[in-house]
Amino acid sequence: xxxxxxxxxxxxxxxxxxxxxxxxxxxxxxxxxxxxxxxxxxxxxxxxxxxxxxxxxxxxxxxxxxxxxxxxxxxxxxxxxxxxxxxxxxxxxxxxxxxxxxxxxxxxxxxxxxxxxxxxxxxxxxxxxxxxxxxxxxxxxxxxxxxxxxxxxxxxxxxxxxxxxxxxxxxxxxxxxxxxxxxxxxxxxxxxxxxxxxxxxxxxxxxxxxxxxxxxxxxxxxxxxxxxxxxxxxxxxxxxxxxxxxxxxxxxxxxxxxxxxxxxxxxxxxxxxxxxxxxxxxxxxxxxxxxxxxxxxxxxxxxxxxxxxxxxxxxxxxxxxxxxxxxxxxxxxxxxxxxxxxxxxxxxxxxxxxxxxxxxxxxxxxxxxxxxxxxxxxxxxxxxxxxxxxxxxxxxxxxxxxxxxxxxxxxxxxxxxxxxxxxxxxxxxxxxxxxxxxxxxxxxxxxxxxxxxxxxxxxxxxxxxxxxxxxxxxxxxxxxxxxxxxxxxxxxxxxxxxxxxxxxxxxxxxxxxxxxxxxxxxxxxxxx
Length: 528
Prior knowledge:
Elements: H1 6-57, H2 61-74, H3 78-114, H4 121-127, H5 130-146, H6 151-175, H7 180-212, H8 234-272, H9 277-295, H10 299-318, H11 322-349, H12 351-359, H13 365-371, H14 375-390, H15 394-416, H16 423-449, H17 455-478, H18 485-506, H19 512-516, H20 522-526
Helix pairs in contact: 1-3, 1-4, 1-6, 1-7, 1-8, 1-9, 1-10, 2-3, 2-5, 2-8, 3-5, 3-8, 4-7, 5-7, 6-7, 8-9, 8-15, 9-13, 10-11, 10-14, 11-14, 11-17, 12-13, 14-15, 14-16, 15-16, 17-18
C-alpha cells in the first residue's frame, strides 16, 4: 500500500479535482455544438433524478468506509478492513440493483408524469446501469481513502473523465441523426462508459494491492488458528456503517432533491408562462448545462481552499486558538475573492463574445451577464461552509442551505411562471439563493466564533474589479484584432488580467508571503 501523508494526499486529490474540472469543461463547450441547447436540456432534465438515486444508494457510505477502514488499519486489523469492504459492497450492490430495477420499471411513468419532457425517456434508461457502477466505485474509493492511498481515487477519476469526454461526444454524434432524444441518450451512454472504465481502474488497483498482501506480515494467529484480534460480526459492521452514513446521506439529499425540484419546477413554470416544451427545455439546458458550469469554473480553486481550510481550522479549534481561526478564515475568504473576481469581471464585461466563442450562441449571454456580478457569493460560500463543518456545526450549514433552497424554489415558481421573466426568473432565484445562503453562513460563523470580517479587503477587491473591468472593455474595443474575435478576446482578457494582478499586489490583497506558501512553487517566490 502506498500510504501518503495528509498534505500529500490532499494535494493529489486537489490536483486531480482541478484537472477534472478543466477537462470536464470540454464537453460543456462541444456538446451544445453537436446536440444544441435543446438536446443539452434533455440531457440535463434526466440528470437531477439520477443524482437523487445515486445519493440514496451511496450517500455517506464512502465517508463511513474511509473512517472505519482508517480505524481498522490504525489498529493493525487488515482482515477487518477486508470485511468492511465486503459488507459495504453487498449493501451498495443490493441497493444499486434494486433502484436500477425500479427505475427501469417506472421509466415510462417518471418521464411522462414527473419530468416535464417525455423525450427524456431514452436518456433516463441509458443512465440506469451507472447506479451499480457508481455504487461499486464509491465503495473502493472509500476503502483506498481509508488506507490513506489517494492515488487510485485520483487516477480513476482522471481516466473516467477522459474516457467520458471522448465517448460522450462520439456517441452523441453517432446517434444525433436519429433525433435529439437519441443524441442526448448517446451523451449519457458515453458518461456510463467513462464511469465503467473508472471502476475497472479501481478494481485493478485493488487487485495489485491484494497481490502485495502475502508479502506483508500476517495477523497473529492463536493456537486454534483464529486471529488474535476479534473480528466483529457482519451485522455489527453494517450497523456501524449505517450509523455513520445515514446522517451524511440525509444532508446530501437536501441538495439533491433541491436540484431535482429546481429542474421540474423551472420547466413547469416556463410552461405556465406560455413557453412551448421544446423552447423551455432549450432554455433550461442553456442555463444548467452552459451558463452555470461557466460560473462554477473557478470553483475548483475555491473548493481547494475549502478542503485545505477544514484541517487547519479543526486543529486550531482543538487548541482553542481563536486568533489563528480568525486569521485562517480571513486568508481563505480573501483568496477566494481574489481568485474568483477576475473570472466574474470577464464573464460580465465580455459575456456576449465569450458565449459566442464557447457555445456559438450569443442569445444566452444575457443570463451570464446577469449572474456574473453575484458569482463572488458562490466563491466565498465554499470556505464559509467548510468552516462550519470544521467547527462541528454541519447541521447549521444544512439548515442554511435548506432555507436558501426553499426561497429559490418559491421564487422560481413565482417568477418563471410570469411571461415577463421567463427563464430569467430562474436566474434571479439562483442569485437570491446564493446571496441568502452565503449571508446565513457568514452570520453563523460570526456568531459562533466572534469572527469579524475585514471589510477593507472587500472594498479593495471591488475597486480592483472596477479597474479591471474598465481596462478590459477599453482593450477589447481598441485592439486591432476585430477580424479574429477569439484573438481579440484572449488579448483583451490577458491585458486585463495583468492589470488586475498588478493592482492586487499594489493594494496588498496578495503578497509574496502568500505565494511562498504554495506547494512546489513556494520556494521560488520566497527568494523575492
